[in-house]
Amino acid sequence: MIKLCIFDFDSTLMDGETINSLAKAYGVESKVSDITHRAMAGELDFFDALRQRVELLRGMSLGLAKEVCENLPFITGAKELIDSLKSHGVKVVVFSGGFHLATDAAQAKLGFDESYANILHHKDGVLSGLVGGEMMFGFSKGDMTQRLQRLLNISKDQTATVGDGANDISMFKHASLGVAFCAKDALKPHATHIVDTKDLRELINLIR
After folding, report:
1. Within a domain: residue 208?
2. How many domains would you assign to the chain?
3. Which of 142, 146, 150, 181 sits most deeply, having the most CB atoms within 10 A of its CB?
């Protein structure tokens, strides 16, 4: 019986990539989206790709970044799936290689229990182009999965993970159920289930 379900955020719960949305608002979308695509396909080291993309946001106003993150669209069925899991006593946690600006805003709307993500450094109301946080590396999601399992006394057999990109591989290794949701080819071999229908309600009867 699943007691802990960990979701990736971008392109799993949220319909798109947070950093691409920020880049579009700041006028650097093409440069950032190319790096994002290569990173999620496993072609670039995640840390290097994150650092390069955040650097392109240097000078963006914090106010604009918050506005973008508070208005991100969600995948169909995200709220229904999370509500279903929580009604069965499952702890629902979000891991994001993106930013707390987005996951904190989403938590208020979707009702998951906690999120772990990165923080865009800012000074005097402007992004500095620097980033820090809990999900900086390719191994971060796997490491945090194990930490949560120890803290909550939850086993691998009681853990489910849902994601779409190469940086989700590390957390899939520590779960008995791993759902590749509309995923990149790099993740699919590591999944126990593959769902290519873009509706998270498809998972309600899958995660038990």
Report:
1. no
2. 1
3. 181
Tokens of 184: 């990149």
Tokens (6 digits) for 62: 């914090």
In a domain? residue 188: yes
CB neighbour list of residue 129: distance below 8 Å, 6 or more residues apart: 54, 55, 56, 57, 58, 59, 121
Kind plus residue range of the DSSP H or E element containing 193: strand 193-195
Does position 172 have pLDDT exceeding 90, yes or no? yes
- Model confidence at 40: pLDDT above 90: no
DSSP string over 85-151: HHHTT-EEEEEEEEEHHHHHHHHHHH--SEEEEEEEEEETTEEEEEEEES--STTHHHHHHHHHHHH
CATH code for position 165? 3.40.50.1000
Q: Which of 131, 79, 142 is nearest to 100 (CA)?
A: 131
SS3 191: coil
Distance, in Å, from the CA atom of 55 to the CA atom of 99, rounded to the nearest integer, reads: 14
Residues with catalytic roles = 8, 10
- pLDDT tens, position by position, 67-82: 999 999 999 999 999 9
